[in-house]
């Protein structure tokens, strides 16, 4: 029996095990669908007659045994990056799979095993997290376990481990958390910092003496698959003083509490957009230790990802499917133009379609701005609405992006509460 809901397939299988099959291994075959992100197997055993059946549990894919828990568990999960202890995470290749049972003890009248398989399919969904954090593996005071637990408590989905010039965190992080732990390193020089995201060991030696060395370290990280982020480029204490012509993918325009250094970074980013460049903006808390102002996921980066994995999240960022908020509470922001959204380039044939901004979780007094290469085109002060929809003409524009400004009592001034990446036009 199979049930299909949105992005979830559930199948139930039954197998009668006879007494003569005791002490043998039995397979309950099933077909793994395509594009599965997560497999969840549960089983129940109904004993017939006198005596209690003991049936062990495991699973195989089309190539090998993928896990075994014997009689210790009645269910397990296998995902692309995480799995129940005793099971191997990784690709869930479509094709012939089987739940594997050891008929350890079977009553004379036999028993019936009922297996429920749930397949979570890959599908775009908004995930939120922090792309810049530190731990005891450099100059932070939080352990990796503490960082993960804090992010889970905040309801976040991912955290990037970006300790200064260290990679040991990428080998020792907890594997049993619901938060995706993205490997990374903050390439820290005397004249600027850059995050290398997505690989456990992006470079062999962080030390640099000149700009040529910087290019070489970034080249090595790039070859190993890292995404390159210029961190807090206009910071008062550690700005990016190397050339901005250095190879990079994204720029951290919002680092920690929103202050003048972030204003300068946002202005520099906007100038790049006006000049015709497509450049993804991200944020990160840069948290090191308990602090009244610098906290986990403040700011919070939201990513539309097809899978809840490090690769899925980084791919979503690379596509520009990103907005940033002051905290995990929002506001939630989406920018579209017909079938296009943040990160996309609107084709000439769709130029007459208006750009639409949808915002949720607003507060009275919030200022919502829709901005193009021509400047602020729409600005609305929220009265008592929690949700707002506005639109603007897309013709003869290079891009649109949006901001939400809010007065925070702790700062006694309006500060940025939300920022989208652009939707590009032609």
UniProtKB/TrEMBL annotation:
Signal peptide: none annotated. Residues 129-191 form the Polymerase/histidinol phosphatase N-terminal domain. SMART domains: POLIIIAc. PANTHER family: EXONUCLEASE, POLYMERASE_HISTIDINOL PHOSPHATASE N-TERMINAL DOMAIN-CONTAINING PROTEIN. This is CehA/McbA family metallohydrolase. It comes from Paenibacillus aestuarii. The lineage of its organism: Bacteria, Bacillati, Bacillota, Bacilli, Bacillales.
